Amino acid sequence: MVTIRLKEGVMKGSSNAALWAATVGFFIGFGSVSLFGPTAHLFKDIMRLTPTDIGFLVAIPMLTGSLLRIPFGAWVDSTGGRLPFLILLIASLIGLVGLFYMLKVLYPEHLTHADYPWLLLFGALAGCGIATFSIGIGQVSYWFPQNRQGWALAAYAGFGNTSPGLVALIVPAITAAFGLWVSYLVSAAILVAGLIFYFILGLNAPFFQFRKAGMTYDAAVTRARDKEQELFPKGNPLVTLWKSAVHWKTWPLVILYFTTFGGFLALTAWFPVYWRSFYNVPVMEAVGLTAGFSLFSALIRVPGGLWADRFGGESVAILSLLVLLVGAVIMTISQTFAWSVIGEVLIGAGMGVNNAAVFKLVPLYVPDYVGGTSGWVGGLGALGGFAVPPLLGYFVAKQGSVGYAHGMVVYVVLAVISLLLAVLLRQVRPKEALPA
């Protein structure tokens, strides 16, 4: 822990402490939302919900968690990240406690359709935990020098993104033994512990602490440079959102992240159906294949970030997208279980490594508005989790069972488009930013 005495006060914290605080915060925020999907069907008959009601109920946490990434990510550029991160974790905790109450106290005898708005509200609040992602990206980016950001951001996102896979493995056992409400209770307790951990260690980067202590902008920049901070914000949240939106390089990064993180979210939801319906595997095997995909794709982001630091984000993005393309082609044409598993592994590897490469490029291309750019990339990119599943379902509706395979052509198309954009970014990268 580094402590520097200032005339105006005390600056505390370190880059590594902030990194792990943000990682734990995102991990628990994302994991708590993963409980909501298995809950939705329990309310269907009791509350007489329509298919549309159920669909919106399942979608609402991911929707709020994705869209809130945009304004909250931009807010980092004026606050440093600590305050918005805490607000989102507290909101997520309120949602979890509300859902726990509805399951433990009201379910099933005392629930009616009139309680549906409360269910939506608590689900929307629980989804706030997902939005911590873009805040952590900005907070970590400001703490670390650019030659270490690839690893730092990949560690943050990689370890943080493992929570859905772990939840998928652990929750069924807890639910079977004690009931689903106990899963919510355990998750709420973990969220409280993680919130406290973040509160203690999740401090803002030096520049923001110097500014809070009363220094002028220029003086804070000078002092912060001594602590290896290289990125500094310009403008308020509205300015940073606007400036990052009109910067053309923001949008190729949005599309790359839409393909690989939005695509990752979509497949995490789709693969249980795919394996059960196309290959008739047992339920637990389908869960295991999906959880394995989720964990592998998340963890490979960590070495992916190291590769991006060493070889450049664009080069790593191009290679990872080629791997994704090969995997998507295999799954599109495969009619055998073994080849489809190979395709799934290649897709997971390509998605995970590209996700790391994208956030290596964010502070490189839009260094003055990292928070705003992280919000656009993280928020709009995550919407792929909503846009892609209906396209996959369309192929099944039109072609029957074989549509489960042929629908993967969606990822072939997305991979090709993203490859072209990654090559474009490689061509326009400043020579002075090329890796040694």
Protein described:
It is a single chain. Helix content is 80%, strand content 2%. It has a two-stranded antiparallel sheet with strand order 1-2. It has helices at residues 15-33, 36-44, 51-67, 69-79, 82-106, 116-126, 128-143, 146-160, 163-178, 180-201, 206-212, 217-225, 237-246, 250-279, 283-299, 301-311, 313-333, 337-365, 370-382, 384-399, 403-406, 409-428, and strands at residues 2-5, 10-13. The protein is built from 22 helices and two strands. It has 436 residues and is mainly α.
Give the full name of the CATH homologous superfamily of the largest domain: MFS general substrate transporter like domains
At the fold tier of CATH, the topology name of the largest domain is Growth Hormone, Chain: A
- Radius of gyration (CA) equals 22 Å
Mean pLDDT: 88
Query: Termini distance?
Result: 31 Å
The low-pLDDT segments are 1-9, 432-436
Per CATH, the architecture of the largest domain is Up-down Bundle
Instruction: Please give the count of helices.
Output: 22
Task: Identify the strand order in the major beta sheet.
Answer: 1-2
Percent of residues in helical segments? over 70%
Secondary structure layout plus pairing:
Blueprint: E1 2-5, E2 10-13, H1 15-33, H2 36-44, H3 51-67, H4 69-79, H5 82-106, H6 116-126, H7 128-143, H8 146-160, H9 163-178, H10 180-201, H11 206-212, H12 217-225, H13 237-246, H14 250-279, H15 283-299, H16 301-311, H17 313-333, H18 337-365, H19 370-382, H20 384-399, H21 403-406, H22 409-428
Antiparallel strand pairs: 1-2
